From TrEMBL, chain A:
ABC transporter domain: residues covered: 2-233
Taxonomic lineage from the root: Bacteria, Pseudomonadati, Pseudomonadota, Alphaproteobacteria, Rhodospirillales
Cross-referenced Gene3D superfamilies: P-loop containing nucleotide triphosphate hydrolases
GO molecular function: ATP binding; ATP hydrolysis activity; branched-chain amino acid transmembrane transporter activity
Protein name (record): ABC transporter ATP-binding protein
Keyword Ribosomal protein: no
Family: Belongs to the ABC transporter superfamily.
Keywords: Amino-acid transport, ATP-binding, Nucleotide-binding, Transport
InterPro entries cross-referenced by the UniProt entry: AAA+_ATPase (IPR003593), ABC_transporter-like_ATP-bd (IPR003439), ABC_transporter-like_CS (IPR017871), BCAA_Transport_ATP-bd_LivF (IPR052156), P-loop_NTPase (IPR027417)
Organism of provenance: Thalassobaculum fulvum
CDD domains with a match to the protein in the record: ABC_TM1139_LivF_branched (cd03224)
Record SMART domains: AAA
One of the protein's GO biological processes: L-amino acid transport
TrEMBL record, chain B:
Keyword Transport: yes
Protein name (database record): Branched-chain amino acid ABC transporter permease
GO terms for cellular component: plasma membrane
GO molecular function annotation: transmembrane transporter activity
Cellular location(s): Cell membrane
Main subcellular location: membrane
Membrane topology summary: Multi-pass membrane protein
Organism: Thalassobaculum fulvum
Residue stretches spanning the membrane: 20-39, 46-64, 70-87, 99-117, 144-163, 192-215, 221-241, 253-280
One Pfam short name: BPD_transp_2
Keywords noted in UniProt: Amino-acid transport, Cell membrane, Membrane, Transmembrane, Transmembrane helix, Transport
Length: 233, 290
């Protein structure tokens, strides 16, 4: 569904990824692990069309994404939950959600405002709060809810557990596990090893701007050498 | 004592009237900047264009209301031409190039005004509906100037509602907060920018036509208002509607009362205010980004 080949991406003259390749199969969850600064977020920004310096190939359902503006990539069915969550501070929680819902709402009953509020009841109590009045966990829930309202075919998540209390991490795990059960394709970037490997169908490890290891969650759980060398677990 | 009170009331109304003109100009400029970090220094020239078009339209049709209707539309159309021919191409050219090109546009407009309308100051008649003077609170005040204040308040209320209550308003606020994230939600920020740009041009044209009966219409009226407008935008906070309102009121009052209370200091008062605000609140009074 998503294929990346020989991706070189960076900022201006600085290249961060060097010939990275990976792919997400339909209905599967791919976890990308790697230490700080190896280029995980940069890869996701390249997929969304947010970077100026990109070479290589990115295809979604066979269609080349490189050169398309972010809004076109989003309308093709890719939703993005960035590392910084990027809730709009000038908008209320409801407006943040409606921004996505009005554009991608489908009558066939996929994701609706009601349904995401059932998924994240905390947000229902916060609907009329400003985007900045939320806790870190609530912001993450809002970012995921907003992405779901785009009724995406591929959900991209950048370190959804970063900085969150264990109890919130658990509830986000439950939500993502539910989405996985429904067959939503996901590309999950994480540093939380247990969280990522328990959700993923496939695992890739990034180091030095490229993929240095590929395998299944079971493989990497058993491979302590890879964990020590590339993840510092 | 009554003489004193009426002095203050009249000057307050004068200040409000200037504030409303500044608001009509600065609101477009600030939202355009907030959305896409684009500075259009020719915004003042569009205001002058509105005044000139207004003068011609009202002379041609024999009615003030022709100016009121035609100027915003004509200036918005010129804005579309500018957008397609120049601004769209300059979007990624960096602030320095944008400033230089739109600065150059000021001179292009100056010469076009000279060619089209000559160097002699022009005037325009008030609408019959609002001609003459109105007596209230023990003062006598030109009715048309009250109309300007009222119109400014109506536009202000309409824009506040548009921005706070509609989907377009939410999209504009989201785009100002974080353009990249707005785009990732499928929003074509460039198209929103275009709509806002046209609206800003129309408001500048409206301000020109509305100001024409109270000011003399000259080729340099756009450059004269550009500086206070930019000061309003900076004081208020780039990209912020509330900032444009607060900044317009501040500058309108400081400029008006400065001119009558301390004429020697009036010329620097606005800049002193700018300096104080920038020292205390570098992002302006109401920064748009949280
Ligand atoms: N906006 C930017 N401009 C220039 N360099 C950047 C920018 N953002 C990130 N970088 C650099 O690119 C490299 C990779 O950053 P990236 O954010 O992709 O890492 P990451 O794998 O997501 O790390 P983390 O786990 O800390 O989020 C880093 O060296 C970083 O300093
Ligand atoms: Mg990152």
């Amino acid at each position: 569904m998503l294929e990346i080949e020989d991706l070189h991406a960076g900022y201006g003259e600085t290249w961060v990824t060097h010939g990275l390749s990976l792919s997400v199969a339909p209905g599967r969850v791919l976890a990308v692990l790697g230490r700080n600064g190896v280029g995980k977020s940069t890869t996701l920004k390249a997929i969304m069309g947010l970077l100026g310096s990109v070479r290589g190939t990115i295809r979604f359902d066979g269609r080349p994404l490189l050169g398309l503006p972010p809004y076109r990539i989003a309308t093709l069915g890719i939703a993005y939950v960035p590392e910084t969550r990027d809730i709009f501070p000038s908008l209320t929680v409801r407006e943040n959600l409606e921004l996505a819902a009005r554009r991608f709402g489908r009558p066939d009953g996929a994701w609706t405002l009601e349904r995401v509020l059932d998924l994240f009841p905390r947000l229902r109590e916060r609907l009329d709060n400003g985007g900045t009045q939320l806790s870190g966990g609530e912001q993450q829930m809002l970012a995921i809810a907003r992405a779901l309202l785009m009724n995406p075919r591929l959900l991209i998540l950048d370190e959804p557990t970063e900085g969150l209390a264990p109890i919130v991490v658990q509830s986000i795990h439950a939500v993502l596990d539910g989405l996985r059960g429904e067959g939503l394709s996901m590309l999950l970037v994480e540093q939380n090893f247990g969280f990522a490997t328990s959700l993923a169908d496939e695992v890739r490890v990034m180091g030095r701007g490229t993929v240095v290891w590929a395998g299944s969650p079971a493989d990497i759980r058993a491979d302590t050498a890879v964990q020590a060398q590339w993840l510092g677990v | 004592m009554t003489a004193d009170a009426s002095f203050w009331i009249v000057q307050t109304l004068n200040a409000l009237q200037l504030s409303m003109l500044l608001f009509l100009l600065s609101v477009g400029l600030t939202v355009i900047f907030g959305l896409l970090h684009f500075v259009n220094l020719a915004h003042g020239s569009l205001y002058a264009l509105g005044a000139f078009v207004g003068v011609s339209a009202s002379a041609f049709a024999g009615s003030y209301w022709a100016a009121f209707a035609v100027a915003p539309v004509a200036v918005a159309l010129v804005g579309i031409v500018l957008y397609v021919a120049l601004i769209r191409r300059m979007r990624n050219a960096g602030p320095m190039n944008q400033v230089l090109v739109t600065f150059g546009l000021i001179f292009v407009f100056l010469d076009l005004f000279r060619l089209g309308w000559g160097d002699i100051p022009l005037g325009m008649a008030e609408p019959d509906l609002f001609s003459g003077r109105t007596e209230f609170l023990g003062i006598v005040y030109p009715t048309y100037r009250l109309f300007i204040i009222g119109l400014g308040l109506v536009v202000l209320a309409a824009l506040s509602l548009l921005l706070s209550r509609t989907q377009l308003g939410a999209i504009v606020r989201a785009g100002v907060d974080n353009g990249d994230m707005a785009a990732c939600l499928g929003i074509n920020v460039e198209r929103v920018f275009f709509v806002v740009f046209c609206l800003g041009c129309a408001l500048a044209g409206l301000a020109g036509a509305v100001a024409a009966p109270v000011l003399s219409v000259t080729t340099d009226m756009g450059t004269a208002i550009l500086i206070p407008t930019l000061v309003v935008v900076v004081i208020g906070g780039l990209g912020s509607l509330r900032g444009a309102i607060a900044g317009s009121l501040l500058i309108g009052f400081v400029q008006t009362f400065g001119a009558v209370l301390a004429p020697q200091a009036a010329a620097v008062a606005v800049y002193a205010l700018l300096a104080v605000v920038l020292i205390l609140r570098p992002a302006g009074l109401f920064p748009a980004r949280g």
